[in-house]
Each structure stands twice: as structure tokens, then as C-alpha cells.
Amino acid sequence: MGAGKGRKVKLRGEKSWLRASELPQPMPPTHFLRIAGQSAREVADDGSIEGGITESLAMMNGEVAKSLMTDSLVIKATRRKNTQVEQIALLYRTCLSRPPRMQDTKQCIAALNQGLDLGDIAWALLNSREFMFIQ
After folding, report:
1. Closest CA to 75 of 125, 110, 111
2. Contact predicate 118/108, CB 8 Å
3. Distance in Å from the first CA to the final CA of the chain
4. 48 HSE (CA, 13 A, CB side)
5. Where are the alpha helices (DSSP H) in the chain?
């Protein structure tokens, strides 16, 4: 993509996000999209929508999870909130599309007070059964 007048150059690399349609197809077998079921494009309808151990491990420990926990727009927006209660509420609305229950808020505040970070709470929400069923 050129840097013509008025066009924003899209950067590729660790700190950039692109849509799947903007990536070369098919991705290498170790890429998150392939792990999550993207077709190899050699056979029509070769993809998969069923999850398994590989997908679970990629969500828990992969580069996508790492990026979402550290420098994502969600974490940056969450850190701008004034109180822990507001921060937790934003994470819950973003990840689970609902406000936290009182017990959720208490558990998260206790976790933050014990040294966990907002990224750790985001990781827990993204790997919760509730998130998996919503998605």
C-alpha cells in the first residue's frame, strides 16, 4: 500500500492490527487464524468452527492474548478510568457485554490489591466460560 496523499500507511508487525482479509492467504499453520480454524484454501470449506486444546492454549498463552493484556485499546481506556470500580466495570462491559455483579467487583478489587494487573483481569475474562459462550 503506497503512502499517497491522504492515505494512511498500514504498518505490519507486532504493534499493528490488521483485518484477516488484509493478510496474505492462507496464513502459516502456526498463525492464530489457522489455529482457530482458518481454511488452508486447498479444499473448499476446509475450515473448522469447533474449538479444541490448541485453540484454548492459543487464547490463554498466545500473542493475541499477550497483546490484549498489555497494550490494547481496551487496557489503555481502562487505565484512564479514575477508580478501580470504574476500571472493572469497563472491562466487564467490553469482554462480557454486561456490568460486573457486586461479587465480581469485590473479587477483582481483591486481586488488584494483591498485585495483579488490569491485564490479568482481562485475561481471566477472555478465558472464562462466559466469554467463550458469548462468542
Report:
1. 125
2. no
3. 32
4. 11
5. 32-35, 53-61, 63-70, 73-79, 84-96, 102-113, 118-126, 129-134
One-letter amino acid at 13 equals: G
Over the stretch 3-27, which tens digit does the pLDDT of each residue have? Answer: 445 555 555 555 566 666 677 777 7
Number of Cβ within a 10 Å radius of residue 73: 10
CA distances from 79 to 4, 37, 97, 101, 102 (A): 35, 33, 19, 20, 20
Query: Nearest CA to 67 among 19, 114, 13?
Result: 13
Residue % of the chain over a pLDDT of 70 = 48
Q: In this structure, what DSSP letter does residue 72 have?
A: -
Residue 54 C-alpha cell reads as 490448541
Which residues are CB-contacts of 74 (< 8 A; sequence separation ≥ 6)?
68, 90, 91, 94, 95, 122
127 φψ region: left (φ > 0), alpha (ψ -120 to 50), beta (else): alpha
- Give the list of residues 6+ apart from residue 44 with CB closer than 8 angstroms, or none: none
